[in-house]
Description:
30% of the residues lie in helices and 22% in strands. By secondary structure, the protein is an alpha/beta fold. The protein has 3 domains: 9-76 and 445-518, Roll (Luciferase, domain 3); 78-279, Rossmann fold (3-Layer(aba) Sandwich), CATH 3.40.50.12780; 526-647, 2-Layer Sandwich (GMP Synthetase, Chain A, domain 3), CATH 3.30.300.30. Helix 6 crosses helix 7, helix 8 packs across helix 9 (201-209) and helix 11 (280-293) packs across helix 12. The chain starts with 12 loop residues before the first helix and ends in a 5-residue tail after the last helix. Mg(2+) binds at residues 540, 542, 545. Its EC number is 6.2.1.1. CoA binds at residues 194-197, 312, 526, 587.
Amino acid sequence: MTPTPPSTYTPTEDFVQNAHVDAAKYDVLYAASIEDPEGFWREQGKRVDWIKPFTQVKDVSYDFGNVGIKWYADGTLNVAANCVDRHLAKRGDQTAIIWEPDDPKDPAQHITYKDLHTSVCKMANVLETLGVSKGDRVVIYMPMIPEAAYAMLACARVGAIHSIVFAGFSPDALAARINGCDAKLVITADEAPRGGKKTPLKTNADAALSQCADAVQCLVVRRTGGDVPWNDARDRDYSKLSEGANLTHTPAEMNAEDPLFILYTSGSTGQPKGVVHTTGGYLVYASLTQEVTFDYHDGDVYWCTADVGWVTGHSYIVYGPLANGATTVMFEGVPTYPDASRFWQVCEKHKVNQFYTAPTAIRALMGQGNEFVEKCDLSSLRLLGTVGEPINPEAWTWYNDIVGGGRCPIVDTWWQTETGGHLMTPLPGAHATKPGSAMKPFFGIEPVVLDPASGDEITGNDVEGVLCIKDSWPGQMRTVWGDHDRFEKTYFSDYKGYYFTGDGCRRDADGDYWITGRVDDVINVSGHRMGTAEVESALVAHATVAEAAVVGYPHDIKGQGIYCYVTLMNGETPSEELRKELRTWVRSEIGPIASPDVIQWAPGLPKTRSGKIMRRILRKIAENDYGALGDTSTLADPSVVDDLIANRAET
Ligand code: WT7
């Protein structure tokens, strides 16, 4: 008989002894952070170096119609100075970034804080030469190379606001983001090697820029040295411009509430929105969570496998770790190239202590077999982390047993692009963990479970509902770029007086939290967040498509897959070719991550008499769960449901 796995996992004595935060300290600090947020965050504000120290701490209103969020509002600072310059005296020769290239045969780079300083200053000077200054927007569309981090920090240094667009996004998606924030400059590279293939970034950028104002310049970093088209009027060669660039640069003095970056993310309706994070509070929060959640200690080697195109890369590859003077690994490749051992080889090679990745990667690697892990020496690992979607207990247990050798606490960190940093996670030296549970709120975070219908707070344990947060924290987003109304409507209107997360959650009998997934029309595919509305609008933009409805369905590796119901225009005939064409079409409209997994031809969609598509029913059919279709009596034509069920596509 196989022994039943334990339902909770306790950290080792050794781990607890050395941890920044143990159980007693968590209780004291958490209580203090809720009872006296001003006092708690005043103290934490000292984590960063201020040019002009703040006197105000918190200035927040969650009142719908009047939402305003400010932290440390009269302080001034510079993020790049905090992530680079202030470490020079003590750890100038320490490695700041270990860069691991896509191809393991190519050499890794160890970039010291001194090197980082020089590179960031150079790039800051180049940006200024190109006319970029305080408040200007710069779009970064780059491979995972050190220059991507330099670009972020150089923007922060001159006071420009960066907006990173994941290199897997299409030219159209890139163009929308360049135009959405009126960027002055796009920083890209010739090509992005990933998994042995090359994405033609510069060519994509050209295609995007053809839809943008002529004044937008394009700064090109050489990664592969491959031949790329060149337009003298627009394109600037980084290697040439940086040659003579000054090696020092005076960082701009920024207000705590000046925007640091914009990052577009998907919502339940409309096109992606530009989430705005500001300078002081964001840095305090990213730095505190990086240190405490991962129990980062001086000298550790820390690796977050995300891409800087997502918020995880912002907070936990670049800003959090570098603010703490950490050694952070930046990986250009993918988990399965050259083979499924790559992550573990990199851990062995760089003696990684903390490893942070996504459930989708864990599931994919788990499926390849244990030998890929077991042939590597993972004895340096002390802590494992996961992020991006709920992790199923099987994957959690495999991660714990096979990767962590049963000795590494797993932090299942729940947060969002909007939150800037972790809102719920076990603290590794303080909490016993449960496979699949995000466990406890971070300092200053007061989660509440609400009844979705009444909006009333559900108190007590062993309850389920929608997840809201009672009060603000310094890392919270401040607004939607150019659309503060949309910010208020999205997050503060459904449940008045709270921040609405869009997630459902359960508080179990012990008071621990389990995220149950989105309660809106956002799906999570391989940890990538997507609005079903975006995929729908891409589909209906195709000449043959009359109408489309998109839902998520459970997928073994990706967490959720993309299931599309498509109604063709009169006279169009369904075919395998058309199916393929629509897939390619969506990939080119949004990017490969939005590739439909399933397309079902739907002669009609289930609608109410007022014309609203009943997605609940479509979700059930996609999930292959017809028993639970619920009430269909309000449908204008209930027979469409029978047709959809009869012709359900295999998933
Ligand atoms: C959504 C946010 C935050 C970094 C990556 C994703 C889901 C995130 C977890 C977790 C269960 C999670 C939520 C959330 N999510 N982390 N540990 N357990 N669900 O950021 O793209 O803004 O997506 O991802 O549904 O709302 P994002």
